[in-house]
Write a structure and sequence with these properties.
26% strand; 9 strands; two-stranded parallel ribbon; Peptide Deformylase; globular; five-stranded antiparallel β-sheet; 4 helices; single chain; alpha+beta; 188 residues
């Protein structure tokens, strides 16, 4: 079942997500719903806070961008309680967008090489070094679990320049092609 994507200004996007345990009830259904929501919204990643759940779960299917970024081919990941270790300090700037910030994209600097540790939906542990655009996707989605958005990585000048667009999202004046949930006080 597709769920509404929570938009900028909603408090759940700024909370630090809580870890998931093996006895988490309804985990399989939640993961299925997250994938359905991500696909319906035409995203390549989705974190649980984006559907109003402050839990440490991320789903990624990077395959749609494989033509531009070969390292993304066939990469479908369910990340539970992910941890990132930075392996390369070189910062590369690329445009990023976010389902929770519709209509916006900004150049964000991120490292290109990380080590990722996580457990999958069966609570099997994994560890992998990831590079390139896939590393960017993982960092972007894991930021959501820390209550951060990609706009937290841009300059104050850029934030001032997009302030009107951000305020429109908060006020409920932004329309999307996918179901959304506005901030509690948004005027629709």
């Amino acid at each position: 079942m597709r769920l509404p994507v929570y938009l900028y200004g909603h408090p759940v996007l700024r909370k630090i997500a809580t870890p998931i345990t093996k006895d988490y009830e309804g985990l399989k259904e939640l993961i299925e719903n997250m994938y359905a929501t991500m696909y319906d919204s035409e995203g390549v990643g989705l974190a649980a806070p984006q559907i109003g759940r402050s839990e440490r779960i991320v789903v990624i299917d990077a395959d749609p961008v494989k033509d531009s970024f070969p390292e993304c081919a066939g990469r479908k990941l369910t990340l539970i309680n992910p941890e990132i270790e930075i392996l390369d300090g070189d910062i590369v700037g690329r445009d990023e967008g976010c389902l929770s910030l519709p209509g916006l994209s900004e150049k964000v600097g991120r490292v290109e090489h990380i080590r990722l540790r996580w457990v999958d939906e069966n609570f099997e542990p994994h560890e992998e070094e990831i590079s390139g655009f896939l590393a960017r996707i993982v960092q972007h989605e894991c930021d959501h679990l820390e209550g951060k958005l990609y706009i937290d990585h841009i300059s104050m000048i850029r934030k001032q320049l997009i302030k009107g667009k951000l305020n429109n999202i908060i006020a409920g004046k932004t329309r999307c092609d996918y179901p959304v949930k506005y901030a509690p006080k948004a005027r629709k």
